[in-house]
Design goal:
Number of helices: 1
Helix content: under 10%
Largest sheet: 5 strands, antiparallel
Oligomer: single chain
Radius of gyration: 17 Å
Structural class: mainly beta
Strand order of the largest sheet: 6-5-4-1-7
């Protein structure tokens, strides 16, 4: 009897569409600064998700499980056996104006334009993965 899986190549599809938080993401999304060599990056906590302040809807959504939807931006960075994926926070439409979830501004520091940043996925077993799960497509 033949098997359809003989000699099959394993394919890992990293394009998951969206992630949703299953725990607080406050201070768990990284910004990336391009180093002076023009090749390597330094990751640090993104300024837009760093500190909790009363009335800030972004941080309120990031701190509440199931309230933050992150769009997969299609870029993976692997360093020191740690895997990071670029995401964009999708804003809920609470003001009646449709921007298709895009908020924030351009030209911000550390590659954080429009609430983008990097979450750690932890595929390699090193580091602490962000508390997210695949969400839709």
């Amino acid at each position: 009897m033949t098997s359809l899986f003989n000699g099959a190549t394993k394919v890992n599809n990293n394009d998951v569409g969206y992630y949703i938080n299953v725990g607080s993401l406050v201070a768990k999304i990284n910004g990336a600064t391009l180093n002076s060599d023009g090749v390597t990056y330094t990751l640090s906590t993104a300024t837009w998700c760093n500190t909790f302040s009363t009335g800030n809807s972004v941080l309120g959504n990031l701190s509440t499980a199931g309230a933050a939807v992150l769009k997969d931006m299609g870029k993976t960075v692997t360093s020191s056996l740690r895997t990071f994926r670029k995401v964009q926070f999708v804003m809920p439409n609470s003001n009646g104006l449709s921007t298709f979830g895009v908020s924030g501004k351009s030209g911000t520091s550390d590659g954080e334009d429009y609430y983008t940043g990097y979450i750690e996925l932890g595929f390699e077993g090193n580091g602490t993965p962000a508390p997210v799960a695949h969400f839709g497509r």
